[in-house]
Specification:
The chain has seven helices and no strands. The protein starts with a helix and ends with a helix. 62% of the residues lie in helices and 0% in strands. It has a domain at 30-129: Helicase, Ruva Protein, domain 3. Helix 1 (2-27) runs antiparallel to helix 6 (138-181) and helix 3 packs across helix 4 (94-107). With 202 residues, it is an all-alpha fold. It has helices spanning 2-27, 62-69, 82-88, 94-107, 112-123, 138-181, 188-201.
Amino acid sequence: MTTIVRREFLVAAGGLAATFLVGGNIGAQGQPPQTNFGPMDQSAYRPTYRPAKPGATPLLSNTERDALEKRLKCQCTCILDVYTCRTTDFTCPVSPAMHQDVMRLVEGGYSGDEILAAFVETYGEVALTSPKKEGFNWAGYFAPAIAMMTGAVVLTMMLRRWAAESRVARASSAATASAADAPPPATDAEMERLNRVLRDDR
């Protein structure tokens, strides 16, 4: 019985670990795993251009612009955002080009949300390091938490069941041991001799 319960516990724990992995993948926009060591796709860059607004003045400071670039994913097949890629990987031609597009849009009087929308229009949702919090994308934010809570509930139930069955098994073993240690019942002959002794004592 204990072996079966332990096996079920291990299966539940394995299922919880798999659920965490699945939840984490959902939060990553469903993209296949990528590394920084793969070949760069230098043709991935596509211009993101908008005409400057009349009387345009920049709405973002340099710090705000850099923060915005951290929300844009470099499209050279690496896993870095535009800001990190252009400031750490000086062989990448894509992130500097995307940075120039951001600079032109900032100088053209566009807000941060408008700039993000322009890149999404050019590249699709993969332009963002995190999916927008709308529609089905909410699953990317809630799925990991739901998976963790579900896994915690399952593990708690399994542990309680395991503990209860272990207590029952220990109680059963103790009862069996007590019964084995008890003296055997008296035979009829022994009972007759006992009765005779008691009568003689009277």
